[in-house]
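Hi W., the WTA complex you wanted:
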Amino acid sequence: MTKIESLLKDERIFYPPQEGKDLAYIKSRYQYDKIYDYSLKDPDGFWTERAKELITWFRYWDRTCYWDFNKAEIRFFEGGKLNASYNCLDRHLLNPHVKNKAAIIWQGEHDRDLRVYTYQMLHDEVCRFANILKSLGVKKGDRVVIYMPTMPEVIAAMLACARIGAIHVVVYGGLSAEALKSRILDAGAKILITADGTYSGGRRINLLNNAETAIAQCECIEKYIVINRFGEEITLSDKRGLLFDELIKNKEFEKYCPCEEMDAEDILFILYTSGSTGKPKGIYHTTGGYLVYAAHTTQWVFDLRPEDIIWRPGAVGWITFHTYVVYSPLALGATVFIYDGLPDYPNPGRWWELVDRFKVTILYLTPTNIRAFMKEREDWPAKYDLSTLRILGTVGEPINPEVWIWYHKNVGKGRIPVVDTWWQTETGGHLISPLPYTIPQKPGSVTLPLPGIEPVIFRDDGTSADINESGHLCIKGAWPGIARGLWGDSEKFKEIYFSRFPGYYFTGDQARVDEDGYFWIMGRLDDVISVSGYLIRTSELESVFVAHSAVAEAAVVGMPHEIKGEVIYAYIVLKDGFQPSEELKKNLIQHITKEIGPLVIPEVIQFVNDLPKTRSGKIMRRILRKVAAGVYDDLGDKSTLANPDVVEKIIQGRKEIF
Ligand code: WTA
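Structure:
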């Protein structure tokens, strides 16, 4: 691989606050270093301690860690018995301080749509749901697809599955009938749980139509259960349909439902990645290792304590929802806030108003979320009291330093830590992230690996990269939260993750390590453009654009060029109050020349209102690359886009330029 130079030369450093440090789980760099060394020297000892500390087991395991990456075989806590639903609910009922506290606070789009479940109430709801599933013949190992908006019933349904040993497959409610169908069929699901619909920006969104269209072509579905969100009569079009409101009239279902004893290596869930490339993959995680790893990272990275209220806005069909909204905060007995609505409806202050009203303490956003706020004028957070916040998180893509600093300053008021957490659906939880009170931060860097994680950076030929040389990010050895396989395709699991560099887990991300040992994630390999023989990172160029006062968001791709091979095509979203003009284009080009140099001057700048994104906020560069190249049909699978309408507008804009 030709060496890829880093364009970013950001030297700003932010020190962790003193306030809050004394109470933190991990208080210093010294303590982190000691734990890190121990975790690598004695993984068995380290994970045994963490697993016993964090999780209640019905039976302890016979062997703590086992892996053979050449065979793609990974097992943790083998022979151990536990139940995830028990850990998230039942064990808290024995504690009078937790039993009657809020487990879930749910706010719908309308203010009057507000519900609170205490741990006791959630437990009862989960038992009821589990009894219903059992009555429909659901058994251990059966797959149950959950296709719903963000509402408490999603969590209840997930924990009900976990309780009886069924495998849940949560599919984001914004996906099309076609995408839902392919996931149901791939998983071979027996039951579908859905809702009539939800609200979005004042409009009603119908889910049931999609669900019924999908299952019309899915013979494997024996029954589907419909939850009533609109409070109106529901007409079912298929005889397999059941109304939740009817089912719960049966008092029998209110009985206590015992927890199935699950082996640590029994599958807990399958999650299809709505990745920005290619066909969705059904990644599965198992019970023991996943739960330990979820609780472990939450406790140390978010410094989560029982009195915290954590909020990660966004789609239920994402791994962040599974790990940091459902399993770990509930396993640790904290309170989860969930919101079903848009960030800017009825006004751009909505999310800050919710932080203020519900006294959120830990807020976990994506860079895309944050950039959207920067676009909508910076003064909104200041209108609300955000003083209960104590940790801010970010996830999903490299954060532009300018965005990090805005978040730290405007949301965190410069007084609280920001944790930039790098991980993947496959990793189950965070792998590289600052522990909030231990380390000075360089905006844009994910800092150091967590205990138990040993990342390495390889060149193409498998030799180790030098300091500041970017290469393939791989992980040596396994950790409890790593995925155990791809549903129905063990060969592919081995091929994708364990064959590129034998003996290592291959992340597919590019990264570099700087002179202080800090990791910088640079995105996927295909996010690189080659201009006159120089390889340029799109993410870095985008960061430079975003540092311009008029730019809210930028997506940079390569456009084929007869002479130069490839040139830079930049899609730019302006902040409110700025108008597209030739003048502004010149100004942006000057800005790029000044910050980086003339080499990377974009050939084309197209102003757009919005960028095509997946639900988790990842920009679909695959589509933007095609449009830049003038290819308007054959754009590939658009089913995972959160905002499919923007594609047509972008195509129109491109046609106007050429
Ligand atoms: C990217 C999300 C930079 C990365 C939990 C990874 C990040 C992919 C970060 C996984 C971060 C995630 N900085 N890049 N803090 N976090 N990524 O499976 O490319 O939806 O491989 O899981 O997102 O996305 P996934």
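The CA atoms of residues 29 and 439 lie 6 Å apart.

W.
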